[in-house]
Amino acid sequence: MTYQPQKDFGTPESRSDETVSLTIDGRNITVPAGTSVMRAAAEQGTSIPKLCATDSVKSYGSCRLCLVEIDGRRGTPASCTTPVEPGMVVRTQTPQLAKLRKGVMELYISDHPLDCLTCAANGDCELQDQAGAVGLRDVRYDVQATHLGQEKDHSNPYFDFDPSKCIACSRCIRACDEVQGTLALTMEGRGWDSKISAGLASDNFLGSECVSCGACVQACPTATLVEKKVVEVGTPERSVVTTCAYCGVGCTFRAEMRGEQLVRMVPYKDGKANRGHSCVKGRFAWGYAQHQERILKPMIRKSISDPWREVEWDEAFAYTASELKRISEKYGRNALGGITSSRCTNEETFLVQKLVRAGFGNNNVDTCARVCHSPTGYGLKTTFGTSAGTQDFDSVEDSDVILIIGANPTDGHPVFASRMKRRLRGQDGRPGAKLIVIDPRRTDIVRSPHIEAQHHLPLRPGTNVAVLTAMAHVIVTEGLANEAFIRERCDWDEYSHWAEFVSQARNSPENLQPVTLVDAEELRAAARLYATGGNGAIYYGLGVTEHSQGSSTVMAIANLAMATGNIGRRGVGVNPLRGQNNVQGACDMGSFPHELAGYRHISDNAARSLFENDWGVTLNPEPGLRIPNMLDAAVDGVFKALYCQGEDILQSDPNTAHVSAGLAAMECVIVHDLFLNETANYAHIFLPGSTFLEKNGTFTNAERRIQPVRKVMTPMNGLEDWEVTQKLAQAMGLDWNYSHPSEIMDEIARLTPTFAGVSFARLDEVGSLQWPVNADAPDGSPIMHIDGFVRGKGKFVVTDYVPTDEKTGPRFPLLLTTGRILSQYNVGAQTRRTENVAWHPEDLLEIHPVDAEDRGVKSGDWVKLASRAGETTLRANVTDRVAPGVVYTTFHHAVTQANVVTTDYSDWATNCPEYKVTAVQISASNGPTEWQEEYEALSARSRRVETGIAAE
Amino acid sequence: MNSVERLIHMANQIATNLATDSAPVAAVADHIQAFWDPRMKKMIIAHGTDGLSPVAAAAISLLADAQNGG
């Protein structure tokens, strides 16, 4: 389609159920009460000139361009600030209005550069459009003083700020306040001296608190705030709606293109997950897609000590198939396995697990969700009957109490965090929701502009279950449980057993305080608030799951929600915030070794025979190996070949030394990725991957929303990832003939009851669907467990606190916990290859001032971080954000390799690694560790590519 | 930890966490049956009960009986 900007209705939508009828320019229209005259006009297709209004922020009434005449009213009110009234008669075009608007525009233009032809926003500028709309032909003022010629701020890597083009409409400030909730921008000075400023006058955009979400750029009606890429390339000529490939929020974007060149990613207003908002990653950090380090040709080598040799695709597939066959014949078919990725589409993931089950002939398939949200799958399936969150994101608008545990949404899930913050701030006279944060760190959401948690429980890492059991103790013993809900929806005997357990004196907050380090009174107050504060919603992340009791913690959360009746309607629920874009989808698609698509156990004869009949094979009824089990089996010499699509297990999985030993013991490691990642150092075959811009498919976000991913450019490597897997399967003799990912989705729908009503055609029609989508819920299921739990009765599970085996002691007295930061993503393979490094060029170790002083460490010092598993060096950041005794770092940089330090202790039920608790010691350092030096040398050796041309 | 030691650790961990179940031995056996691959099951059965907690040991015996057609 040709380029069209997204329609702007001028003011936000009214949610009122009441309607009002009025007449605008002789035409009748009925709109919800509370709608502005401007929006009502826009909805009937009448465009009232405007500058300071845009529908992402509240009306402001400053530009005086949107004036209208209303029968019976004196003067010319601003249509953006005037709500509709029954019977109102409005005129938007009269000679009087034209004269007024022309006068206003003339004043604006008198202080605006007339460089339209060379301006980056030429053709996409609201000021230009409005000057045309009001018929401005001449500027009569002989202006002596102007705001022209001011210095531009180029500091942000993605957008420029040119104050000379600013019309002081404040749209950027209001977008930062209302949409993003960072409040980084302000209007400095008054009257003639008014100027947009990021933070203090001495700050530039990069140095300010701006998080580069792009909301201000989106809101700016001129070229004052404009993407550098638009400056460089020009305005887009077409757009395609697609889904972001970063976190589990799953924002919908318009990829705005010139030919096959991506000009910008613009958040899509109709995107149901993001509602028109974005973060620095999705909006700007897509430069990796064309990064020079992308590998575009397949490569093979006999040994990891050899250099890589580039080959054509046909040779790569034939060689890969022959190696897999050789190993299968020599060591048995159980020596093969595969890993699917949460960064890949549902269709790609489905094909990889199908290749393993039907092609390799075993169930040795796992997904990176193993190392993040596998406990969610186990815990929520056990208690509720479904391995997924219960709500849609919109639900947060009806929450009265928000409980965040083990999640850092402003960094990990920033677009949803903005929606959450909007609810926490309150709006239009409605008080904000109350906030409880359970986290060892004082994360940004605990205290930020206009947000303050009522209760922050800074627990000792590893004691989540104890804290949640203590909260349950308070709720039950103080008579706050919702017994009516429990009797109706849950198994009463199981509840009674659980209630008896949590009521024991040993589970009281006071008794557990020495273990959890959480103040008992504060914990009691938090429990009371959650139980009695109205709609209570729990949001959690990897701070819950990545523990030796990750699954128990998920079940403890479910217990709390059931005990208080906070399930089955808007505003409540249990919501896992998924780390990567398609964690939910990868799990749904049967990536776990014990489960077929739709969470049916492989030993379930009925489910298995459904797949057997469809695929024409016999499937093994026994579960296969999970990722850590694969590595153990490799070290034991019985697991020899791995197909790893879109994952970098060497960097992301715990205890790097063990991972590398496992990989080194294999005879055929196949890495299918964009870059020569760390795992590829141990690979024998490299199959180049395609980016989310180069392929079709679907991602499923944290709210179970299945969303289209659309190809906007030709794959630089020549093949979409699903095609690579299909061609590999064909080379192995499998009769696969998909011509488009829609056919893969048709197969998924055919074999998976919760996806029965999903198809690409349906997704094109409605934009997205939240599973289950079936005969009972043809339009999907925004909220689950409305009339009862999927499993029948909700199951209370006793979760006794069991301390981790990872203990601090004299040698390792501190607890390390790991996480992520806003500007970087996962192992950093994508974001490190973008300008986002401007914000986070290296992993830092956060350490409390007391612990730092004890060790003579200052901010910026190099320190050695050592655990029982290994040691690395990085620089320190001394901060009281972490509690004494706790240190924290991120794992975004391969140079640091934080996972050299983490251990291979794991969740009891799922083997999800215990990333969040490692006993460590910190000491001064003057250089990289032996491991880091050896690894750097290995990487350099391993990434050599043969450059010689073979003789004919 | 070598692989057998890890399996012992895992079995004990499962037993500890399912200790409050109404039938812990069966629950542990069911869990291992549902989530461990056949080689892991064989290894722990072959290893015997050394280092296993009483509940874990009983669960492994139960699994062994089931595998032997008992």
Short characterization:
The complex is a heterodimer of chains A (952) and B (70). Helix content of chain A is 29%, strand content 16%.
Compute the number of helices of chain A: 29
Task: Let me know the average pLDDT of chain B.
Answer: 93
Record field, number of beta strands of chain B: 0
Helix share bin of chain A: 25-40%
N-to-C terminal Cα separation of chain B, in Å? 32 Å
Text of the CATH class of the largest domain in chain A: Alpha Beta
Total tally of structural domains of chain B: 1
Description:
The complex is a heterodimer of chains A (952) and B (70). Chain A has 952 residues and is of the alpha/beta class. Chain A folds into five domains: 19-133, Ubiquitin-like (UB roll), CATH 3.10.20.740; 159-290, Alpha-Beta Plaits; 299-368 and 583-733, 3-Layer(aba) Sandwich (Rossmann fold); 375-569, Dimethylsulfoxide Reductase, domain 2 (3-Layer(aba) Sandwich), CATH 3.40.228; 814-941, Barwin-like endoglucanases. Helix content of chain A is 29%, strand content 16%. Chain A contains 29 helices and 36 strands. Chain A has a seven-stranded mixed beta sheet, with helices on one face. Chain A has a six-stranded mixed barrel with strand order 31-35-32-34-33-36. The longest helix of chain A has 19 residues, at 313-331. Chain A starts with 18 loop residues before the first strand and ends in a 10-residue tail after the last helix. The model of chain A has no long low-confidence stretch (mean pLDDT 95). Chain B has one domain (3-67). Helix content of chain B is 73%, strand content 0%. Chain B has four helices and no strands. Classes of the chains: A alpha/beta (952), B mainly alpha (70). The interface between A and B is medium-sized, with 34 and 21 residues.
